[in-house]
């Protein structure tokens, strides 16, 4: 009782102090929202606005939860190259060698990735081995994983990384993180491909209430939320498309995955692998020697990924018995001759091909457990119709025509396989969700079958008229599209449904026959558009729209203004006709992107798009601020400019952002790399809980700072 009373007295005394005195309190490394709720309860709700609470955390969702209504979350940036080199040199170079011509530090700086703890640790380690006159940075980099596991100098960093790993709840989430060791450091990983691999290999297990892909997506989001992986590219709606591991976290993942025999990795020439390998990954010319694989029992391998060249032993697919995941997209030695052996891998669930593959055999019908087929990096032009008979297949990715067994309606009815496909699909047995995508001239009998693919959620189509035909009949294609986008209100209305149409070689008028009611969550139209097709205006649930054409006319833009539920809009054109976006137009729009050859931006009136968060102005010829007035967007968080705008223009936008009440960031767009290294701009007026300068992290674990 005394201890509780004593604790209560201390709490009362603390509450008295913060009620009657100004305070500045720093709370370091909050790990859960529950921790913050307990701490927050000690603070008064009616603060006079002169006090500050600063919270640091590594978890983005915790940072958001800690932020008050008028608070601010600052995401810590890594050090730039200049600051990284200076910090490293301070720790690595003894004073007596300050004027010594230092060796090249590029390799070590790339490994450290601008992270202060990594730079300090590597600097102290190199100093201990006689740098700059001793061993080079390249030597240290080549043995970094050994030193991370055993080196005394690496103790603090090792404990920090292990703490992040140990905090991951459950085996599945840890396995998802270790899986990143399958890929080279310079290889951006596509999120959706990664999720399909996790699902195919059983790293995430299906539950009655949630399928494997949704669980995989939740695990991915958790790793992203904890800043263990970082985004590289994002889609129009802001979702992550590609990602990567980084810095010493990547080295830690490699070291841990290999030591736990989670991945058998060939990325150097130093050691031979053991007999048992569950996941085999070969990187860049380290699999050319057959002798290195003489001890490995390939019959037990469940996942095989190859980057670069590979020896005959590895590509002898008759040796594999348990293979579930096969990624040969970056394999240089893959030929058509290998595909026959792949078709005998009866347990295969994920198949990604590349190299010089030009065709798929009919034997692909043997892969009855296949869930994902990716031929985007191949030279496959014709997809055999047997693919559509695979009962578990959910995702087909590439750019192909459908086999001529269903090419013409008259032929289709006479072919045995064609009739089998029609019967299979008409009975509702198809599980295909993604068909992205196929090339059509409007005459394929396959178009009559799309209506039977009841699970179809994403379709991508290239419309290319036949050169031999004087005119093109698109009626079958329009019927197929009409069936796909039909508004089935009796089904789950929240289901994501996406359509992408490319019609650069024909007029967009062929879309006129499509009528409502229709449902799509995402629509992308690339081609000659003079007016917006009527069905677009009547679409229910449309949240994402991308239009790409030579010239965006006033008629198209006026129609866009009526899309009241649109959240993400991307407009690609050489120029835009003179147009004004009126008050109350696009009330739910969050992200807007203009990609123009000429800076002919529309006039946006005060009150339009009032909840806009991201504005992308991708035109290199922007010269001033007159194109768009950002003051009318009170919730704006970032402005992204073309990387080739002048420095003067960039400074003008940065100044305008500083004067904006919400202090949006000004970034330069980088293809495939949304992550900017420059420091975030700060909001000069954070109301009750604002700050006026960047606070450095209190320790390496802090990646976000919350001011409340």
Structure description:
The protein has 708 residues and is of the alpha/beta class. The chain has five domains: 2-77 and 692-707, no CATH class; 102-167, no CATH class; 168-259, Arc Repressor Mutant, subunit A (Orthogonal Bundle); 263-357; 381-549, no CATH class. The chain is built from 20 helices and 31 strands. The strands form six sheets. It has an 18-stranded parallel sheet that branches. A four-stranded mixed sheet has the order 1-2-31-3, with helices on one face. The chain has a three-stranded antiparallel sheet with strand order 4-6-5. A hairpin with a 5-residue loop joins strand 5 (230-234) and strand 6. Helix 5 (106-112) crosses helix 6, helix 8 crosses helix 13 and helix 10 packs across helix 12. The model is unreliable at 1-7, 406-414 and 672-701 (pLDDT under 50). This is NB-ARC domain-containing protein. One of its GO terms (molecular function) is ADP binding. One of its GO terms (biological process) is defense response to bacterium. InterPro entries: Disease_R_plants (IPR044974), LRR_dom_sf (IPR032675), LRR_R13L4/SHOC2-like (IPR055414), NB-ARC (IPR002182), P-loop_NTPase (IPR027417), WH-like_DNA-bd_sf (IPR036388), WHD_DRP (IPR058922).
Topology overview:
Blueprint: H1 2-20, E1 24-27, H2 33-40, E2 52-57, H3 60-66, E3 72-75, H4 81-92, H5 106-112, H6 116-128, H7 137-142, H8 144-150, H9 155-166, H10 171-178, E4 189-190, H11 191-201, H12 212-225, E5 230-234, E6 240-244, H13 247-259, E7 264-266, E8 279-283, E9 303-308, E10 325-331, H14 336-342, E11 350-352, E12 372-374, E13 382-383, E14 395-402, H15 409-412, H16 416-426, E15 434-440, E16 458-463, H17 475-484, E17 498-507, E18 518-519, E19 522-528, H18 534-537, E20 539-540, E21 544-548, E22 551-552, H19 554-560, E23 568-573, E24 575-576, E25 580-581, E26 591-596, E27 603-604, E28 614-618, E29 638-641, H20 647-659, E30 665-668, E31 704-707
Parallel strand pairs: 1-2, 7-8, 8-9, 9-10, 10-11, 11-12, 12-14, 13-14, 14-15, 15-16, 16-17, 17-19, 18-20, 19-21, 21-23, 22-24, 23-26, 25-27, 26-28, 28-29, 29-30
Antiparallel strand pairs: 2-31, 3-31, 4-6, 5-6
Helix pairs in contact: 4-6, 5-6, 8-13, 10-12, 11-12
């Amino acid at each position: 009782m005394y201890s509780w009373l004593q604790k209560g007295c201390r709490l009362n005394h603390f509450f008295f102090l913060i009620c009657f005195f100004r305070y500045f309190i720093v709370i370091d490394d909050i790990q859960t929202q529950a921790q913050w709720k307990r701490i927050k309860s000690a603070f008064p709700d009616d603060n006079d606005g002169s006090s500050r609470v600063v919270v640091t955390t590594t978890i983005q969702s915790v940072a958001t939860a800690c932020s008050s209504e008028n608070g601010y979350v600052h995401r810590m940036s890594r050090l730039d190259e200049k600051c990284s080199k200076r910090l490293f040199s301070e720790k690595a170079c003894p004073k007596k060698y300050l004027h010594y011509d230092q060796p090249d530090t590029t390799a070590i700086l790339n490994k450290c990735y601008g992270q202060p703890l990594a730079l300090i640790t590597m600097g102290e380690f190199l100093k201990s081995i006689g740098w700059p006159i001793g061993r080079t940075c390249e030597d240290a980099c080549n043995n970094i994983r050994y030193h991370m596991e055993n080196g005394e100098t690496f103790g603090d960093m090792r404990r920090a990384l292990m703490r992040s790993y140990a905090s991951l709840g459950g085996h599945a989430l840890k396995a998802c993180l270790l899986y990143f060791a399958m890929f080279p450091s310079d290889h951006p990983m596509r999120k959706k491909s990664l999720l399909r691999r996790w699902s195919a290999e059983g790293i995430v297990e299906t539950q009655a209430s949630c399928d494997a892909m949704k669980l995989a997506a939740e695990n991915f989001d958790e790793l992203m939320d904890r800043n263990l992986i970082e985004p590289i590219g994002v889609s129009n709606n802001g979702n992550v498309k590609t990602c990567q591991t980084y810095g010493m976290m990547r080295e830690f993942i490699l070291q841990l995955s290999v030591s736990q025999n989670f991945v058998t990795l060939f990325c150097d020439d130093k050691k031979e692998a053991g007999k048992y390998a569950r996941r085999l990954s070969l990187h860049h010319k380290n699999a050319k020697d057959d002798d290195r694989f003489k001890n490995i029992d390939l019959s037990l391998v469940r996942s095989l990924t190859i980057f670069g060249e590979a020896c005959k032993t590895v590509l002898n697919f008759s040796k594999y018995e348990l293979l579930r995941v096969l990624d040969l997209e970056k394999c240089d030695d893959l030929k058509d001759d290998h595909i026959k052996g792949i078709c005998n891998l009866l347990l295969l669930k994920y198949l990604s091909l590349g190299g010089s593959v030009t065709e798929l055999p009919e034997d692909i019908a043997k892969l009855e457990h296949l869930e994902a087929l990716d031929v985007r990096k191949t030279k496959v032009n014709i997809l055999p119709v047997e693919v559509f008979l695979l009962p578990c297949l959910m995702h087909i990715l590439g750019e192909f025509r459908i086999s001529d067994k269903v090419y013409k309606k008259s032929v289709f009815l006479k072919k045995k396989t064609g009739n089998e496909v029609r019967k299979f699909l008409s009975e509702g047995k198809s599980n295909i969700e993604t068909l992205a995508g196929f090339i059509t001239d409007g005459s394929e009998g396959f178009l009559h079958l799309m209506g039977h693919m009841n699970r179809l959620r994403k379709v991508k189509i290239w419309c290319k008229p036949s050169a031999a035909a004087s005119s093109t009949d698109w009626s079958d294609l329009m019927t197929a599209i009409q069936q796909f986008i039909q508004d089935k209100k009796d089904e789950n209305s929240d289901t994501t449904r996406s359509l992408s149409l490319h019609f650069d070689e024909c007029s967009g008028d062929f879309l006129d026959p499509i009528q409502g009611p229709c449902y799509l969550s995402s629509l992308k139209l690339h081609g000659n558009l003079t007016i917006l097709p009527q069905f677009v205006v009547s679409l229910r649930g449309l949240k994402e729209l991308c239009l790409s054409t030579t010239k965006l006319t006033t008629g198209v833009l006026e129609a866009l203004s009526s899309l009241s539920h649109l959240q993400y809009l991307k407009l690609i054109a050489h120029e835009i006709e003179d147009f004004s976006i009126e008050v109350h137009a696009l009330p739910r729009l969050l992200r807007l992107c203009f990609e123009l050859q000429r800076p002919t931006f529309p006039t946006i009136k005060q009150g339009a798009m009032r909840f806009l968060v991201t504005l992308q102005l991708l035109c290199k010829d922007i010269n001033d601020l007159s194109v768009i007035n950002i003051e009318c967007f009170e919730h704006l968080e970032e402005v992204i400019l073309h990387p080739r705008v002048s420095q003067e223009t960039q400074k003008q936008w940065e100044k305008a952002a500083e004067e904006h009440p919400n202090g949006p960031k000004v970034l330069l767009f980088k293809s495939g790399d949304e992550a900017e290294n420059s420091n975030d701009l700060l909001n000069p007026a954070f109301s009750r809980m604002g700050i006026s300068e960047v606070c450095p992290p209190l320790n390496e674990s802090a990646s976000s700072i919350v001011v409340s």
